[in-house]
UniProtKB/TrEMBL annotation:
Coarse class of the protein's main subcellular location: membrane
Gene3D superfamilies: MFS general substrate transporter like domains (1.20.1250.20)
CDD domains cross-referenced by the UniProt entry: MFS_MefA_like (cd06173)
Subcellular localization(s) per the UniProt record: Cell membrane
Transmembrane segments: 16-41, 53-78, 90-116, 168-196, 231-254, 266-286, 293-312, 318-340, 352-375, 381-402
Organism of this sequence: Nonomuraea zeae
Keywords: Cell membrane, Membrane, Transmembrane, Transmembrane helix
Lineage, top ranks: Bacteria, Bacillati, Actinomycetota, Actinomycetes, Streptosporangiales
GO MF annotations, alphabetized: transmembrane transporter activity
Domain Major facilitator superfamily (MFS) profile residue range list: 228-416
Protein name, UniProt field: MFS transporter
Membrane topology, from the record: Multi-pass membrane protein
Amino acid sequence: MSNAENRGASRVRRPFITLLAASALSVTGNILSMLAVPWFVLDTTGSAGLTGLAAFATTFPVVVSAAFGGTIVDWMGFRAASVVSDLMSGLIVLAIPVLFVTTGLGYPALLLLLFVRWLAATPGETARKAMLPDLSALGGVRIERATAAYDGVSRGATMVAAPVAGVLILWLGPSALLLFDAITFLLSAALIGLGVPRTGHERARRGSSGYVSDLRDGLTFLWRDRLQMSATTMIVVTNMLDTGVTQVLLALYAREVTGDPRAFGLLTGALGAGAVAGTIVYGAAGERLPRRLTYGCCFLLAGVPRILVLALGAPFPVALGVTALSGFAAGAINPILGVLQFGRIPVRLRARVLSSITAAAYAGMPVGGLLAGSLTELTGLTFTLAAFACVYLLASIPPFVFRAWRELDRQQAAST
């Protein structure tokens, strides 16, 4: 390929790369906020209860916004919704430390700002994901690689941002970290606004028949698509289980079985590192793999082995290795889900259907921690881990037995 052709290819891929960069900044901002806010509340109130209430104010609005905000994203257009969402998020986060050091910031006002900040941030995430197929097509990037790159950037940003946030809290304090958080969102808005064009699909959007009607159209499409409903149900169940495992059971395992709190961090880190590696490998080879079989096997391996090995009391190095392998398998799940969604959801419904899926995926997560804690109190850690592994196994069955999943293979055949 000549230098001119290389420059041409780079130019058409620039919007896609810009989208990935903006997504990385936004994810980084979310991670900074998730770590900075608890420390900020503890520093200013000293109350664990108020810190828990602040955590609720950062999770509940995600479900609300995802459930009802997708229609607005479709109305505004993906690019505009992303920019507005990031601008609002950045300015709201910036207001927290500014108000604290100037006029003062009461706890009720902090809760309100946190609620609105996460209410505003979720549509931006939906909008950026909705832009992915159009920008990847514009840049000549196959959808398997595009979805893997998008998921890999998100996972990589999470891995990097979390330890960096911990260091910055120690060095600069949570207020300064919130300033960095605000900057990431403002930079993300600038990248999308200046570096990503409106797509032809957005310019050709149909007129609205009303918010309620448009919202119903998205929910109806999801309800009638048996493959999408099956995939969404699997994610709802396993997100609930994963929340219980990561927030409760791993911590109990580290304390009761290994007697070393570092085991908690190592298991979590091994899962994340494996997922990043798996995403990279799928991005390179995913288009040559059968989607349904790959998804089913990866889904099964991502959950059951890492939970079961803890229930069986395997030596910690074995548990660590199995967890890393499960993470590697998990790396292919989100990219294949993205291919499934983008190949089946009409562009005019894309944001509202994606939002409905996100709302459903998040809705069960608070239950997971309560279920894990309650069941452990009643039956013990080993039984709870075994029960979670069994439910994960049942949730992994549909791709192997349900006829609707064969459509994933037909979708792949039609795209090649």
